[in-house]
Amino acid sequence: MKQTSLPLASLSSWSHFNQVRLLGASVEPHIVAPDGTDKGGGLLATADHGPGASLLAVPLELLLSKERVEHYAKEDKSFKELIEAVPSLFQTPRAAVLLFLAWQMTINNPEAAHHGLGLQNPFADYLKFLPKKILLPTFYTSEERDLLVGTSLFDALDQKSTSLEREFNNLKEATETIPWIQRVWWDDESGCLDMEDWKLADAIYRSRALDLPRGTGIGMVPVVDMANHASDDRFNARFEVDEIHEHVLLVVRDNKSIQQGEEITIMYGVGGACEMIFSYGFIDEHATSAREVFLNLTIPSDDPLRRAKIRFAQEAPGVRLYVDDQNEVKWESTFVWWACVNQEDGLDFRVEQLVTGDTELKAVWNDQDLPANALHSTLLNHRLYDLFLLRAIVTIQQRVEEQGMRMAESQDGFEALVPDNVLIRTSVHETIGKLRSLEMDLLSRAYETLEIQVT
């Protein structure tokens, strides 16, 4: 839908009227990197700051979280009717904020202004300062998605796209019988909400949500989310919540100082290269390792317990490969153990009738009840644990080899495609190329490590 936009130069006025204090800092529409490239908007120090100095103070009531959305619904009858129509979608903090963002987009849509919907609020105005196009993988072209074949992001993006479509369809199905929502969002002529808007709301939240300390929870913090990323020891500021729980603060790191004219940066996260692209659209320029890779695992189709295992385990069906602090490749998976034990080992399932008349699936190990989260601990104490461990390692090694082969087979096709900035954008091509290189290196190291463990 069409959106009203405001220049970042006007954000200082918004901050003033909403009691956001910029303490020797400013929001700049253009931050120039050391190599001379334009990084876009960001925060700049307007004075010298020592360790622990406050740079920014945002009232906690401006934290856009599920609790804030619930509070807003008490004041806006139309929005309350909307969220009451989709109770299942409103359960998680993320989905609650996405509904709110979609609602604010509608308020900001000049073509929907005549409907007189929504109450003016700080968030609707703040949304006008945020970008309307975000280069996250959910906005990749089909040609750009094909470049991901062989990477862990390929499957993750497929699952994410399916999830977003399911959410959007559920939203439409639950609200299209409400006359005014049908008219504003879904009407063939006057409706303004589409899948691209839902993807944009998800991208805004995913790239800007912060996990705040002191039990505050997850949410978007205006102005703080303008800070750009720097990695490891290079970032110079951190966010926290003050002791009286009134403000979200941006302060200088204890071991850093910031000079006037220097950019103020935070670290977005410590995830791997795939996670950085997935949530933020880029890989850190100083990254020398993928850090971690998540590969899906399956249970063989000829396993007679396959369906029961998948239903009962309720575990992420995959394995996480990661590089630890000693630069050694390790793996972790709870699901792999379900793939490695069978009836002849002592595993079985039974269906029990409950007093309510419902049925419940139960797992048993050598005729003893087995809780879903206790399989690995049970195997640890078994006399044949080394055998089970060998099966797990071989299963993971085969999956690593399969992933490596997929990437190797698709590499020639990747290198043959030249960016045209229409179907394949240069920045996306470079980002995916770096991801492929980093993940192939980690897969190779993982295979060698697993080979040693097998031996």
UniProtKB/TrEMBL annotation:
In the record, which residues are listed under signal peptide?
none
InterPro entries in the cross-refs = SET_dom (IPR001214), SET_dom_sf (IPR046341), SETD3_SETD6_MTase (IPR050600)
Q: Name one GO cellular component term.
A: nucleus
Q: Which residues form the SET domain?
A: 25-269
PROSITE patterns from the UniProt entry: SET (PS50280)
According to the UniProt entry, its GO molecular function terms are: protein-lysine N-methyltransferase activity
Quote the Pfam families the UniProt record gives. SET
PANTHER family xref list: SET DOMAIN-CONTAINING PROTEIN 8, UNCHARACTERIZED PUTATIVE METHYLTRANSFERASE
Give the protein name, as stated in the record.
Answer: SET domain-containing protein
Q: Please tell me the species this chain comes from.
A: Exophiala bonariae
